[in-house]
Amino acid sequence: MTRRLHRTTASRQSRARVSLDRIDRMTVLRGLFGLFALVICVRLFWFQVIRHSFFEALASDQHELNQLLVPKRGEIYAHDQFSPDGLSLVVTNRTMHHVYANPKQVTDPQAVTAAIAPILAMDPEVVLSRLSKAGDIFEPLKHEVSDPEIEALQTLVDEGKISGIHWMEEDARWYSEGALTSAFTGFVGLVDDQKTGQYGLEGYFDNELSGTAGSFSAELDSAGRFIAVGDKSVVEAQDGDTLILTIDKNIQYKACTTLEEQVKKHNAKQGSLIIMDPSTGAILAMCNVPEYDPNHYGDVDDISVYMNDVISDQYEPGSVMKSITMAAAINEGAVTPYTTYEDTGEVHIAGYTIHNSTPKVFGVVDMTVVLQESLNTGAIFAAQSIGSERWAHYMEQFGFGEHTGIELSGENPGDIALVQRDARYGNDKAIYTATSSYGQGLTVTPIQMLQAYGALANDGVMMQPYIVDQVVKSNGFQEIHEPVEAGRPISPETARTVAAMLVRVVDYGHSKKAAVDGYFMAGKTGTAQLAKENGEVGYDPHRHKDTFVGFGPVSDPQFVMLVKMDEPQTQWAEGSVVPVAGEVSRYLLNYLKIQPDRSE
């Protein structure tokens, strides 16, 4: 009996242990399944929430085509009376190539570098560094690669000598006139690997010329083919605006080639020339020397050549300012062409002694002789006759110290702050009223001085200079520029009086080489000494900037012209810039078919 009880008890304990083992195993299995489910949930959360945007883009890449539609950059035209449509293409686009590399496909970076660097005219170290980025799939190498260079690369590919080098077509800017128009075109260069207009018209009108990019998207099947019933979206690109300039191609050529010849002849550091229609403000020509070729803008020794000195050079203009001084004094009724004063060769103001440019003493002379002989003392007499406050007022009315607003990048405003300071403190120590009357102690730009002389040529009405005649939108809509009046600093009577005085300057003064047979031509020279270098006080008698501003024919002025040279190896403006003005004026009078207004 006892033995049977023990067997029964042992059997029960054994069954209990089996049940517990089963329970433990089930618990473990349930735990493992729970943990597995948790891992799946975490992964699903990771893919569906945290990394949702990545996998959405990946799916889009596999099943959708998204492409940027690049607009064509707008063209630029100049006027040309010899062309059938009266226009000449100055800036356009041509098809070239962008060469790039897929470093993951480049098996031997050094060998590929040695093969392609000479063809692309690139630094081998730069090429090698880009080809050696093993994990990269796109490395730009060079923009605007020509067809012959691409043919050379293709030969290497066909021969199996290189791998991982690719190219695609791209529009490249082409400047048909090269350096001849670089003063105002600027160029399109790379900024952070993006093509961007820089300087001149390209910089000023970059947004308008660039246009607006479009886009194209469509669904693809697993084989990369379009799905006929799939979603498609097209946003058309809008090409850039076309610019039609006021520049005349033939006047531009004559002006720029003449300037370049004379700058070289006189070994000047720099030269500028600008021609404007005084009745509208339209710019007919604009030149700088030295120039650069915008098709190869990187091939320059000094990037300062990109700056357009016509609008950016802030300099002391010298005696060309005397015409403005005389206009202000005559307009105020303080002097007439026949008002006299006694020239002693010097003037003493606020402890300073100011001399004429030559040691000669002229004695009693009138205001016409002041301009004819370019007397500093006479200009001071005229400015003092109206006082420093009114003189500063006329400086402002003639547009000095302010941007003209011409549609070009890089314009500077000049500086007349010292003249304005004299106006606040009165005449007792108005030294800058005195010096500015003959063009020192202030700075102007050539475009400002041209605008001011435009008022003398245009019955006292000063027009804002402009260089864009029309903007043509991609849809054909035309925006035509209307001339803008910039002010009326003097009366018509004053303008005509000063113009007549300036005719005598050309006939009998320091501007004789600007005369043209059969025409009344007006003009004035300026030879402005440059400030000493290395912080020294005063002016260097051996360094100067020469300027001539003139217009004609005086009976009905059709053009006003400014010519400037920096540090020519001649003593006076009469020998450097005036001959340029005379030669270009003769061409203009003939080209524009302007009838003579003078008979001897």
How large, in whole angstroms, is the Cα Rg? 38 Å
Number of helices: 19
Number of E-type strands:
23
Highest CATH level, the class of the largest domain? Alpha Beta
Distance between the termini: 164 Å
Find the CATH superfamily of the largest domain: DD-peptidase/beta-lactamase superfamily
What about the largest sheet?
Answer: 7 strands, mixed
User: On the 0-100 scale, what is the average pLDDT?
Assistant: 88
Task: Note the beta-strand portion.
Answer: 15-25%
What structural category do the secondary elements indicate?
A: alpha+beta
- Tell me, what's the shape? elongated
Descriptors for this entry?
single chain; 600 residues; alpha+beta; Penicillin-binding protein 2a (Domain 2); Beta-lactamase; 3 domains; seven-stranded mixed β-sheet; five-stranded antiparallel β-sheet; 19 helices; 23 strands; 38% helix; 24% strand
Give a structural overview.
By secondary structure, this protein is of the alpha+beta class. The chain has three domains: 2-50; 69-176 and 206-240, Penicillin-binding protein 2a (Domain 2) (Alpha-Beta Complex); 246-474 and 490-591, Beta-lactamase (3-Layer(aba) Sandwich). It is 38% helix and 24% strand. The strands form seven sheets. Strands 2, 3, 4, 5, 10, 18 and 19 form a seven-stranded mixed β-sheet that branches. A five-stranded antiparallel β-sheet has the order 12-11-23-22-21, sandwiched between helices. The protein has a three-stranded antiparallel β-sheet with strand order 1-8-9. Helix 3 crosses helix 4 (124-131). The chain is elongated. Mean pLDDT is 88; it is low at 53-66.
